[in-house]
Amino acid sequence: MPESVSSYYAYPTLTQTPLVLPIEQHSRYEVYLVRFPLSLQESEPTEPVVEIEWFLSKQPGKRPAVIVNPILGGDYPLERAVSRYFAARGYHVALIHRKTLKISPEHDISHLEFLLRQGVIRIRQVVDWLTQQESVDAAQIGSFGISMGGIAAVMAAAVEPRLKAHTIALAGGGIVDILMHSNDKLLSKPRLRYLAHHRMDLNSLELALRREVKTDPIRLAPYVQTRDLYLFIALTDATMGRSNALRLWQALGKPQATFMLTGHYTSYLLLPYVKWQSLRFFRKHLAD
Asked: Three-state SS for 57?
C-alpha cells in the first residue's frame, strides 16, 4: 500500500480508559456497552465517540473475535441477531454503533469524505481495543458487514492488516455511483434535500462528489487480500445496484461468493444462511 494511503488513515494512539457498562447476561456470553473517544488529528471530530456492544464469550481461553459493522439505519435488530449467533458459538463480537453518514444540507460535500475517513479510523480503534483484551486472540480477528456495513468492512480490510477474514453482504462500489443512482429512501431523500438546499442539479452534485470522495471500496479494493473475503451478492439489489455489487466483487479479485436471487431487503429472508456460511468461513480462516 502506498504511504500516501496508509498515512491518510493513521491516527494518534489513544490512552484514555474506556467506559464499560454491563447490559445483559446469557448462558454462553455476556453483553457490555463500551465507549471511548475517537482519536483523530483534528481537534473536533464530527462524531467524537467510539461506541460498541461487546458480546463476551464465556468459553475459556483466548478466543477469536469478530467486528460487526452496521447497516445505515435502524436500531440494530439484524446486527444483534448476527452478534448473538457468533457469540453463542464461541466468538467474541464487537458490534460497532453507527454514526452519522449521509449527504447533509448543512455541510459541504467534503464533509462526507471526512465522515467516511472517520468511519475507517473508528473500526481501526475497535481493533486496537480488541487486541488489548486478555480474552481475545489478537491474531484472529475478523469482520462482518451488511450493506453500508459491508462497504465499511471492505475499506477497513484494506488499511487494517490485523483483520484476518471478512464476510461481506449486500455491499457495492463506488460510493458516488450508489449515492447518485440509488432509489432507496435512506439515500434518495438526503440527496434531494441537498440539491434543494444548495440549488444544485444532479450533474453538479456528482462532479462535487467525485472530486471529494477518496474513501471508497473500489479505490481501496486493490489493497484487500482476495483469499480473506467471502461475499453475498443480491442479483436484484436496487439499493446498491446489481452493477455496483458486481463491480466491487470484480475489483476485489472475484473472491468466494454466494449469488442470491433476491433484492436488498428480501435478502433478509436468507439471513440464517448468511450467518451459517459466515460462521463456516470464520472457522476456516480464524482459529476456533
From this structure: strand
